[in-house]
Amino acid sequence: MNMSVNIAGVEWKNPVTTASGTFGSGVEFSEYVDLNQLGAVTTKGVANVPWPGNPTPRVAEVYGGMMNAIGLQNPGIELFCKRDIPFLKQYDTRIIVNVCGKSEEDYCEAAERLADEPVDMLEINISCPNVKEGGIAFGQNPKAAEQITRAVKRYARQPVIMKLSPNVTDIGEMAKAVEAGGADAVSLINTLTGMKIDIHKKAFVLANQTGGVSGPAIHPIAVRMVYQAAQAVKVPIIGMGGISCAEDAIEFILAGASAVSVGTANFHNPSVTMEILKDIEEYMKQEGFERISEMVGLVNHR
Amino acid sequence: MIKEKEQAALLSQERLAEKIYSIWIRTQAAESAVPGQFMSVYTEDRSRLLPRPISICEIDKERHALRMVYRVTGEHTGTKQFSLLQAGDRILVIGPLGNGFPLERGRGKQVFLIGGGIGVPPILELAKQLECENKQIIVGYRDEQTFLRESFEEHGRLYIATEDGSVGCRGNVMDAVKENGLEADLIYACGPAPMLRAVKAYAEERQIECYISMEERMACGIGACLGCVCKSSGTDDHSNVKNKRICKDGPVFLSTEVEI
Description:
The complex is a heterodimer of chains A (302) and B (260).
Chain A (H helix, E strand, L loop, with lengths): L4 E3 L2 E3 L3 E3 L21 E3 L16 E4 L2 E4 L8 H13 L4 E6 L4 H11 L6 E5 L10 H4 L2 H14 L4 E4 L7 H10 L4 E4 L3 E4 L1 E2 L4 E2 L5 E5 L4 H14 L4 E4 L5 H10 L3 E4 L2 H4 L3 H16 L15
Parallel strand pairs in A: 3-16, 4-7, 7-8, 8-9, 9-10, 10-15, 15-16
Antiparallel strand pairs in A: 1-2, 5-6, 6-14, 11-14, 12-13
Chain B lengths: L5 E12 L2 E7 L11 E5 L9 E4 L2 E3 L4 E7 L6 H6 L6 E8 L12 E7 L4 H9 L4 E8 L7 H5 L3 E6 L6 E2 L2 H7 L6 E5 L2 H13 L3 E5 L15 E4 L10 E3 L6 E3 L3 E2 L1
Parallel strand pairs in B: 8-9, 8-12, 9-10, 10-11, 12-13
Antiparallel strand pairs in B: 1-2, 1-7, 2-6, 3-4, 3-7, 5-6, 13-16, 14-15, 14-17
């Protein structure tokens, strides 16, 4: 049985990576996860300069999931390149660097800075609901999404994954737009914009008022959107949204994803990625699959 | 060695006051735990998926056991579920997490150990282990439900403040300090933000070395998600901005390092 997958020309040893923002750069989780066993580590979003993020409270629990409004706090690309990339290079796993920005120039500057670094892929975050400028502004308008993709592609030396927002009317249209802009792959979904109110304090629970909802509660929405995106584009898809076990991950693959990211579940169980991997293998054994690619989008062909 | 969530055995559960419960669990965390650290405690209910950070109240290395005293925050909460567990049940934990109080700073000093509300429990193990010249324990409660009071009396000179004046000094812990004319050259404190703000101001006005244990809503509990940051007075080495992670860089900070 072969667990490897090829995403836009980059071979991963298996289809499991970590969702950006839930895993830092892997340092803290390396106590709980053998990073060598992951197909890739996707790092927390990094910008051309350090960002302080939002005021606290930044996180809240909701039924079947959580909300966050971290606001893309990050140490900036320089420190990231000096400290986080060398850390990850010690491991036999692919490195996907998630890049955030407030303007086209920000994204391009970070992509350019990463061009000569030993990273395997870039994931461009145009879908964070928790920052006022940039981020989501590019992710909710197909023209803007296509434009930012084209711009980043001019500077990026690694394959570019565009990370899409679910907070849109037509996800297929967004996927097509970034594909037209030259995206090598797409990943989805980022979090859904939500709100929680403390009825005793009569106040918003998150300082940012709104936050991104993630966790098992959003899984069916994410599977639907991955399916729709898979119908719309030819580039490979990295599916994510509420994966907490192998069954959840396999649904994404059958819907058309070539790989999957595990996010919020890392908080519930820091070793969950290892368990998901083992159980995907078990499923393949039971179902007689030899390769992951045999399963991709299979829901359509039965 | 790859760490995992641990299935700890619940040794006992006891209700100490209204909504305040105490559990002893058998866990390997007891071997390395120090006062001021916390445990991430998980519910079995997958609709409540974030760990609850709960401070360590007592450490019994011989029994490989930890005591945690926690507040049930509502009817349909994870802490409510914890309160229904009984001796013999299993409870999922990770820990010990965070840095803990620097005990060695107390040597030969006149010390305040200050706790307020659900910040009272971690002060108990600190009081047990701290070696200092004059151990003055000042704890603040809402009302007459002064949980852990007897345990504190064994380990130092105890001063109590209650908001309703039913026990000890009426008011907060700083009122108790004033009313009793207490003095210190080192302070350890854990409690709600307004209390810590007052303690920090008191300490800095008098240039007293002061360690405060902070709390914030957490998600991962291990320093990865950046959910539970506090403002730091200078640029932090890890974050490269003026933020520190309470779960990983704290929860105990030198008062001058952070802003509340």
